[in-house]
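User: quick one, sequence for these tokens?
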């Protein structure tokens, strides 16, 4: 799979520019094992990179400016130095990376870029972070910049927040850039410290199944921003810098200080979710991966009832996977559609897949797409 995306990017480069690229840089999508909407609350997340990736084939050019093409859209876009928002659509993510690097003081070399990707778009698997991270890694290498890996996700996040204008946290770019093969990335979104948690499920006879609900994303941008505002309001009422600063042992007392019923539920999700991440990490460190199942499912219930970011299609997939014997299942990513993940015994792959497909058919939903996920490597030169 990896090589074919790289070959496609290379072929797209040749056909657009009639030349060979100087190099190929790959960056993966991700699933988040647990820790949803905690990143912008300075909390904890535990994503891992998936084998699906975006590859950028890139060469420096001697004329000023940047040209980018993608075999997904068959469109070529050229731009010079721009400010936030000036380049729109998919190319805006590329222009955003150039802008963020320049804004950080780097002299970005003029370049030609060709992109290819097999990260499903708009499914909550971070196709945009994969694109940003591939381009950032490529331009950083080509420019010979002294930009430590730990500082890169923040720069890509700035491209997304300020240039593209999406108020997202730092999880997705961190996952795409910092994940390692066979590991889940335990990230403290305040200190940006990471711990690579061994996550070799195959050795335990376990698998993570990704179930793409194929449900159309609805109102994602507005709802995401609204959740973020409610969390900030909760922190303000409680007098803490961020909801990460409310220990789960103080939760009941904290909730009595919040009059607004909706904000109370949003706060409860974040505070309990941070604790679930810590508990999951403990169990994985202790080599007890099956036991994380109930934490995954509790996370889903919290997203469904307290944070209110699920839709019927993802709830049905979770229920069907659990009924088929999954240890745990939850929606992963920003919400309002997208993917769920289920922790299962490997030999239950077909039965679980069939159960979810059947449940979708009975409800008259568009068929889901289901495949097993293995933790892959973060951004790198191919
Ligand atoms: C999206 C955002 F981009 C992330 O920053 C994160 O908030 C996630 O939703 C929810 O956990 O992927």
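Assistant:
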């Amino acid at each position: 799979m990896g090589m074919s995306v790289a070959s496609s990017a290379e072929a797209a480069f040749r056909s657009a520019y009639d030349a060979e690229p100087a190099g190929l840089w790959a960056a993966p999508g991700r699933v988040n094992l647990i820790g949803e909407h905690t990143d912008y609350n300075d909390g904890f997340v535990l994503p891992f990179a998936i084998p699906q990736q975006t590859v950028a084939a890139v060469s420096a050019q001697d004329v000023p400016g940047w040209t980018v093409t993608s075999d997904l859209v068959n469109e070529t876009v050229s731009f010079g130095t721009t400010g936030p928002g000036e380049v729109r659509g998919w190319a805006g993510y590329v222009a955003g990376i150039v802008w963020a690097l320049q804004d950080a003081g780097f002299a970005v070399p003029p370049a030609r870029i060709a992109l290819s990707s097999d990260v499903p778009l708009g499914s909550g698997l971070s196709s945009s972070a994969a694109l940003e991270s591939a381009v950032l890694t490529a331009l950083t290498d080509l420019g010979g910049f002294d930009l430590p890996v730990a500082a890169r996700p923040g720069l890509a996040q700035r491209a997304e927040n300020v240039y593209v204008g999406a108020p997202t946290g730092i999880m997705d770019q961190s996952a795409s850039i910092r994940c390692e093969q066979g590991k889940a990335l335990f990230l403290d979104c305040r200190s940006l410290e990471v711990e690579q948690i061994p996550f070799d499920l195959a050795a335990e006879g376990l698998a993570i199944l990704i179930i793409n609900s194929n449900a159309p994303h609805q109102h994602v941008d507005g709802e995401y921003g609204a959740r973020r505002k409610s969390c900030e309001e909760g922190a303000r009422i409680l007098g803490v810098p961020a909801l990460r600063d409310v220990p789960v042992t103080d939760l009941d007392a904290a909730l009595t200080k919040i009059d607004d019923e909706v904000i109370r539920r949003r706060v409860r999700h974040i505070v309990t979710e941070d604790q679930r991440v810590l508990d999951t990490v403990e169990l994985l460190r202790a080599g007890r991966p099956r036991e994380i199942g109930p934490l995954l499912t509790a996370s889903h219930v919290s997203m469904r009832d307290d944070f209110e970011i699920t839709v019927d299609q993802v709830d049905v997939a979770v229920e069907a996977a659990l009924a088929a014997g999954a240890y745990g299942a939850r929606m992963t990513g920003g919400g309002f559609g997208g993917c769920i993940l289920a922790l299962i015994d490997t030999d239950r792959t077909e039965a679980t897949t069939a159960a979810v497909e059947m449940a979708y058919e009975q409800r008259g939903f568009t068929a889901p797409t289901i495949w097993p996920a293995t933790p892959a490597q973060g951004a790198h030169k191919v």
